[in-house]
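Blackboard transcription, Thursday session:
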Amino acid sequence: MDKSSEPTIASPEVPAPTKRAAPAEVGAGVVLALVFLFFAVQRPEFRSVGNLRLLLKQASELAVVSTGMTLVIATGGIDISVGSVLALCSMVLASLCVKAHWPVGLACVAAIVAGAACGLFNGLLIARAKLPPIIVTLATWAMARAAVTLFNNAGSISGLPPILHDTIDQTNIAGLPLLFWAGVLTLVGGGVLLRRTCFGRQLLAIGGNRLAAELSGTRVARVETLVYVLSGALAGAASILTTARASAAEPNAGLFLELIAITSVALGGTAISGGQATILGTGLGVLTINVLVSGGRLYGQEDQVARFLVGVALLVAVEVQRRRAAAPRH
Amino acid sequence: MVAILFGGRTDSMTRRRQTPRELLTLLLILAAAGALALTTPAFREPLNLTTLGKDAAILALMACGEGLVILGGGLDLSVGATMALSSCTAAELLAAGVSWPLAALGGLAAAACAGLVNGALITYRKLPPILTTLATLLIFRYGASIATHARSFGPFPDNFNRIAAGWVPAVVGGVVVLAFMALTLRAPLGRRTIAMGGSEQAVRLSGVSTDGLKRWGYLLCALCAGLAGLIAMAFNNNTQSDLGTGMELSVIAACVVGGVRITGGEGSILGASLGAMLIALAPDALVLTNRPAEQYGLVTGAVVLAAAALEQIRARRAERARVGAGA
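(Written on the board underneath:)
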């Protein structure tokens, strides 16, 4: 792993200020390639088309949630509530479909709106009331998870219209699952938003130096509120994918998702303190985690080994990131 | 007496004594416990009280360690995983026939190792605390899970289980809280840690090794979590590598509710442990009033938000007073 990170470090004896540092995504790319090669060589069934398709499908929710997380972390904030919000939106979707007999499309919109509402709650408290993001989203995390139990007495809701599962889980576009395209589309959208729009630049400006952004005319409170709304709405969108895949709403949906999303963002090379973010890196981080989970399962292990390895990968990624941050300045 | 308990905080500009920030939490606990005691006879049952004491002690123990880390400007997300690590180590040792004091020491040693790993990564490698302890959360918990094959341990010898019998956990918790209060109010280590949370640079420039302070903070925090893990396993007479899942967020909530500023430098151990008591009271109150215990997240979340808002108002007022006095 150390070897792989070498190209990203500027060697001390060649202080070349004009030389560009290797992009932040290199670390995640190398880790992903190594992990993928390891499983592909060790386990032939890992390379099978079926397994790879499954892997891409499973990565979709994490990709959607991590896109929002990247944008939030770009501003120097954090959103711990996404996993619980996902579970809550999943419950909203299922109960509207099953109990209130709403059309599936409308219920999906309602799930996204519910997520956006949770995000608005976070955003207003963080941007207007100036409360620390970690505390506000921690409180929302606890409240949303508790609110899940208000539906159906803490039980799961099944019996959703089959059209939801058939459309989202079974459709293929250009030979690849729709779920995969949903994840890719969200990531690309997030990337365009971050790199090509005024909003994205303002996000990075706030993360880099809040006061400077404010003084140069950025409406910090508005942009910051919006980014949490976006993160919540994406959690709501991810809940549609989760619910469709399981064909049910589970109270435990999205447990630990916030930690895994933060891990994939950090793995990708986004600075946790804000001001610098990469959606491509996040995509690579998401894939790395899913390769670890999928590969671990082939070894007959439960997710414990994969989660252990995710922890190790996160430490490696943070160390690589720190060296990159330290190297050009010396 | 008040000065000893609350650290004798006075407004340095006006010499006016401020209302201690812990007072509101204390009043809330008294009000909630009083109302429950008057309206719900089941609350007064000895078994309920000792169970509540155990829950509060576990949370308060962990809030002491976490409080110290947060006061110093850090954060430890791995405390729940450290609980699991310590209890699984002790359980393995008990299962191997080791006498119970040695097994308990083994559990604490495992926790100490966890704390040393956190401290080393954060100080020697200068990694950000939140990401480091997020990674070690996964490594400790799932490492314990892999090592024990996620199997369930127990029952344990009666002698070991005595550490969670009756009022013992509450007494242990109380002693640890007092020790941490003494540490933060009187000992150089604690005073400097709080100062470090206020301004790390100032402490470093005054010739104190801030890295040393941090390593002590994470070590003590892990030891507290380890002890809490031992109490929890003895009470349940059973343990598994998923012990204490989600505990890290409850503990941070306890600190915030008790008036510890999340960015460090302000707050007290007494506050953190009072916050822990208040948070431990919530599920008990819900169960006794026939509401599903899962809903305590709604109460906890609301209390955390209220505490954060209060802290914000307090900070703004202090800022205004400082500007006013300066002008």
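Lecturer's comment: The interface with chain B takes residues 78, 80, 125, 129-132, 134-136, 138-147, 149-150, 153-154, 259, 262-263, 266, 272-273, 302, 304-305, 307-308, 310-312, 314-315, 318-319, 322 of chain A (CB under 8 Å).
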